Amino acid sequence: VSPPAVGKQDTDENTPLDLALISQRESGLLGSSEMEFEMKVFGLCTMLIKTYPMAAYLSVHPAIADVAILSTALSRGSMSAITGSTTARHRFTRDTNGSMETGRHTGFTITKSNLISGNIKPNPLSHGLMHGRHISTIEMLIEASKQPQTSWYTGLIDDASDGIHETDPSSSLLSSQLPSRNKNDRYNSCMRIVTRDMEVPLHIAVTMRASLDVVRRVLTSGPDAAAVPDRCNLTPVCWTWMRFVIDTYGSHQSLIKASKRRFIPRTFLESAGAYTQFLSMRAKDICHPSATANSNAPMDRACVGDEDDDRDFWLKLSTLLPHAAESLAKKCPELNILSPPVTPWTALHAAAYLSCPRSIVLKAICEEPWRLREKDDSGNLPLHLAAGREAYCRFIPLGVPSESEEITEPSVIFDLVSLFPNSTRVKNTRKQLPLHIAIEMEKRARSILKEEYIYLGGRSNHDSASTKEKDKLAETMEKSPVLYLSKADPETLQCRDGLTKLYPFMQAAVGAGSSLDIVYLLLRECPTLLE
Predict the structure, then answer these.
(1) What is the pLDDT of residue 476?
(2) Quick one: which of 205, 210, 257, 203 has its CA closest to 230?
(3) What is the value of pTM for the model shown?
(4) Rounded distance, CA 446 to CA 200, Å?
């Protein structure tokens, strides 16, 4: 028994519904406007789904993205604010079966085929987003895929697994420490992995520069998608920022080719740095107008690009950020240094909490500067949340052929303190200062490095020569958020942590990630604590 004609696949594994979604209007076609063409596509898709509902859910045993599994795994080999970067360079290669990707961290190997089960292939929703279909068509595809469908071949409801091969010993420990997947996700096309780059449909929507309404509709159906990392550890939030920078500094095209939507030019790093510098100056101008009134440094207003594009960029960010932060806070509690809020996230608090580019935090400050002084229901300012996150660092493919280049940025703590100096003295509901939280974050990062060292059998990937170690230590001290916070307000060194009841230097000396260097430097700032 085979499915009816409307459900059959061609040699490229496309059904008639897929072909309808990827069809394009011929240029110069008389009597057919773009809207008329979209209406015809919508009508055709409606007829096909009505005739054969399984067409919207044809993939058997689809791969489902799990925020908890992917985010926890990708954080295993990462180094936080100790150096302002990460040692987790992702090098992806094909497995022998050619169907999965492998990401190798320094000291830890993460094979995504161990973490994700199911077929990775485009679905009708991804086809619709890839080819710029109207929001009415997108909404119809989402709703049609939500209903559990019976398999044409077995007559049973498709039963996707929890996303982990239980028989795989390398994933058994990880799976036991993670919350179970919501079984409804298997009926949600917005949470399926649809490309070999480990993307969910929301990745496609932002890289194809879909409208704000389309992004919101996809996000409404799958809010966790905002926090899903792709194979380069880039979330839809990161891609929204990258797409804007590329369009602002490059040749802005009204239409983006699907084959080039993930292309990042070699000039991207320079462009991203210029945009971040522009936002930094603009934030200082907003928060400290008197201090910048006599400044002769010019601010290139062209850096912001077209006003409509800039507004659209901010609206997408303010939509994506709260969903990404809420998803990560709920599904990955083991990654939290401090208590996340229960009430809805603001864009700035979410940006400070997530490991996202520095310019996104600065953009949120420029749009809503009053949020710098606003506490969430756990008493956390954006500075508290930033103290509990790692500095942004990613390896992204640039140019053709693509070569991985590192984006390493200093912690946003430096920006937040300079824009609101008194925030260093504010305690949250746990009676913790940002300094206390930063110490715990730095200890966690050092603990990860020690685990890596043990895993490698005592062979460290870092420079072993004593002279180089001294240079690295000096660099570490310069970039350390802990030391920066202690020097910004030395009086905070005399405040005990609300949880451990220890002074900062004592707090830094306790635990697997303790460092005598940090303890010494903290005591040097406030030696009276030993009297």
Answers:
(1) 58
(2) 203
(3) 0.82
(4) 33
Beta bridge partners of 394: 407
Distance (Å, rounded) from C-alpha 205 to C-alpha 197?
14
Structure-block tokens of residue 250: 């490059």
Per-residue pLDDT tens for 153-195?
444 444 433 333 333 433 343 344 434 444 455 557 898 999 9
| One-letter amino acid of 46 | T
More confident residue, 115 or 367: 367
SS3 content of the chain, % helix, strand, coil (to 5): 55, 5, 40
Lowest mean pLDDT among 64-68, 218-222, 345-349: 64-68
End-to-end CA distance of the chain: 86
Return the structure tokens found at 500: 């451990």
Tokens standing for residue 376: 């969430």
> What is the spatial distance between Cα 14 and Cα 7, in angstroms, rounded to a whole number?
9
Rounded to the nearest 10°, the torsion over CA 195, 197, 198, 202 is -70
Least confident of 112-116, 385-389, 499-503: 112-116
User: Residue 34 gets which letter from DSSP?
Assistant: H
Tokens of 477: 């001290």
Residue 342 has pLDDT above 80, yes or no: no
Q: Are 427 and 433 in contact (CB under 8 A)?
A: yes
Cα 42 to Cα 136: distance, rounded to the nearest angstrom:
7
Longest dimension (CA), the chain: 88
Q: What is the mean pLDDT of the chain?
A: 78
Q: Which residues, listed in sequence order, are joined to residue 53 by a DSSP beta bridge?
A: none
Query: Is 358 in a helix, a strand, or coil?
Result: helix
By C-alpha distance, which of 340, 487, 473, 511 is closest to 413? 487
